[in-house]
Amino acid sequence: QVQVVESGGGLAQVGGSKRLSCAASGSVHSINAMGWYRQAPGKQREPVATITKGGTAAYADSVKGRFTTSIDNVKNTVDLQMNSLKPEDTAVYYCNLGIGGANYWGQGTQVTVSS
Fold first, then answer.
1. Sign of the alpha-carbon dihedral angle for 68, 97, 20, 109
2. Residue 42, by phi and psi: left (phi above 0), alpha (psi -120 to 50) or beta?
3. Which residues pair with 80 in a beta bridge?
């Protein structure tokens, strides 16, 4: 059993910041990578940021320079620091955990950016 739980969503102002956290527990041996995806209303889920166990991160073009992800291999957590938020960042953010060939998802956390 693997559990993935996000926290830190909520309301933010345009230009503001928000930090999301994700904790994985259970049978989380041999994690390959963790990451963040988001899904806005009427749109498909899209990758935002991913990071390998070794700390190599990749970002969607839309968030480069504004978002930063970090991983803690001891605690099995991954964070997403979001700065300079825009209305188009409004979405449900999902944490993803990759173990071997399997993917595990959290329940999602809503981030709403308003002016």
1. positive
2. left
3. 20, 69
